[in-house]
Amino acid sequence: MKKGFMFLLISVLLCESIFAQESPSESEIVFPQIIVRSENLFSFSQFEFLDGTKIKSNKELNVLLKGVPENTKFVNKANFWKTMTFVSTVAGLGCLGATAFVDSDCAVESLCLGAVGCLVIDLFSCFMSVSYKNIALDNYNLYALQLERQN
């Protein structure tokens, strides 16, 4: 009887100590900070917090943006289009470089048209990358303000 009572008493005290953790008050809850673009002429990929603290790298920004559940797909799409920008830039430079090794006028024209096509793809993919990054940034800021996107 004493063992059963001691076991019950220890169990109750253990359960009470486990579930008695304090929940943080509203003043202790830390919400994410708002992220804004840096005030530069070409600030497509330079971001900072509202208090002026700069976000040093794109990886750091991606980690922050992926903290919002629905942002993973937008950050992945932005990274895909950023990679496509790099690939189209390399392909366009390759077309321009190849013109130096070709003697035929028809081949030179074809390579120049290929370079122009790569430039168009480059601009489009850069636009898409910035667009998806902005959607993720808007979602992050709405999450930081504890608001939801209206569809």
Question: How would you portray this structure in words?
Answer:
- The protein is mostly helical and 151 residues long.
- Helix content is 62%, strand content 4%.
- A two-stranded antiparallel sheet has the order 1-2.
- Helix 3 (72-98) packs antiparallel against helix 4 (105-144).
- The model is unreliable at 22-30 (pLDDT under 50).
Q: Could you list the spans in which at least 5 consecutive residues all have pLDDT below 50?
A: 22-30
Strand residue content: under 5%
Radius of gyration based on Cα positions: 27 Å
How would you characterize the largest beta sheet?
Answer: 2 strands, antiparallel
Task: Give the overall shape, derived from the CA principal axes.
Answer: elongated
Order of helices and strands: HEEHHH
In helices, the fraction of residues equals 55-70%
Main structural class: mainly alpha
Q: Tally the helices: what do you get?
A: 4
Overview in brief:
The protein is mainly α. It is 62% helix and 4% strand.
State the main characteristics.
62% helix, 151 residues, elongated, two-stranded antiparallel sheet, 4% strand, mainly alpha
List the topology elements.
Blueprint: H1 2-19, E1 35-37, E2 47-49, H2 58-65, H3 72-98, H4 105-144
Antiparallel strand pairs: 1-2
Helix pairs in contact: 3-4
